[in-house]
Amino acid sequence: MTKAAHPIVVGYDGSADSDRALEWAIATAKLRRLPIRLVAVHDDAAPAWLSDRVEDVRRHATSELSAAGDRPGGIPVTVMEPRYEEPSHALLRLTDDADLVVIGAQGHGFLSGMVIGSVSQHLSRHAKCPVVVVREPHDAKARRIIVGYDDSPGSERALDFAFETAELSKAPITVIHGWHYSTAGTAGTYLPMSHNVAEEISSERTALRESLAGWIEKHPEVAVEVEAIPVHPVRVLSDASEHAALVVVGSHGRGAFTGMLLGSVSLGVLHHARCPVVVAR
After folding, report:
1. What tens digit of pLDDT does each residue of 155-165 get?
2. How crowded is residue 169: how many other Cβ atoms within 10 Å of its Cβ?
3. pTM of this structure
4. Which of 18, 105, 149, 154 has CB atoms 3.0–4.6 Å from 252's, for a disulfide?
């Protein structure tokens, strides 16, 4: 008997960004041949028309996936409507056997303002799978995948997700290592940036290429660029997101990436990125 595929879980509340999240999930389901589990967010602030809208988008997703996959009827779409459970609890519980959980960057009611500290942080901290936060991209034609890398286990997971996605979608990857120079001196003075910055950038880029050698060998069809930039990772990744289809970061990192789920890099990227963001776990 064939083992059931882990689903893509989508939080849906009828907002424009949750519609974008569903479209992102549909495209990804086609690439990865995975079923979709749509979770309707029925909180106290949910609009009265949400139930009808959920049925509409279920039919839409089913139609889009009816010819995809290897089974008769295409890739399945199921709906869960948790009415006696906090939506965040339902979404989190479903990540135990999910391949991905996908949510919109802004929403109605419960999901509203999620990027400034509620659902996205909660899921990113506790989910058992990668968390994808979808927003309208600044550059709708962009295909490039941006990956933040710092040689930590978290960024290795980010690479794994990014390379797999790039191989399936035929998209190019740019792997970015950013680091923050501290120019603060003592007693309120500031020190100039090192005159050896160019040498350090070259050294970091070389080290980055060496770190990626195994990944590039494993995925020879993926076009890869590397960048080493002496600027804080949040700034580097957010700037790069303006012309990217996706930014991928790890759940934990070293240095500036350390503790990112507690409010540093991942939260900064979720705040400022101009395209969908994946927190890989």
Report:
1. 899 999 999 99
2. 17
3. 0.86
4. 154
